[in-house]
Write a structure and sequence with these properties.
The protein is mainly α and 98 residues long. It has one domain. 45% of the residues lie in helices and 8% in strands. It has four helices and two strands; from the N terminus they run ααααββ. The chain has helices at residues 3-11, 30-42, 57-68, 74-83, and strands at 86-89, 93-96. A two-stranded antiparallel ribbon has the order 1-2. The longest helix has 13 residues, at 30-42. It starts with a helix and ends with a strand.
Length: 98
């Protein structure tokens, strides 16, 4: 049987609710996440030798690898950005959540 079945049998509906602290921790520190937020909001990619005016997922993947030596997938980068309060909109690039 799977874990969720065991949790349901043991705890009922409450056992099926999401729990805090689950999942893998980020390889990036809080300071590194703050740096990425600042980078996206205040700097352009071309200031870092990259060819575009706005940050995109693939550009951030490249920047994180160069800066911190960590490899992320595009979807993971979007999750990191959401964690620091930034969301992506296709037609206008990355923007800050209000």
């Amino acid at each position: 049987m799977t874990n969720w079945v065991h949790r349901y049998e043991k705890e009922g509906i409450e056992g099926l609710k999401d729990r805090k602290g689950r999942g893998r921790r980020s390889a990036l520190s809080e300071d590194q996440l703050k740096r990425i937020k600042s980078l996206v909001l205040l700097e352009s990619p071309n200031q870092h030798g990259l060819s575009l005016e706005k940050w995109t997922g693939p550009l951030l993947v490249k920047w994180i690898k160069n800066e911190y030596g960590l490899e992320y997938q595009k979807a993971q980068v979007y999750n990191l950005l959401e964690k620091v309060g930034i969301t992506f909109e296709k037609k206008c690039g990355l923007i800050n959540k209000v």
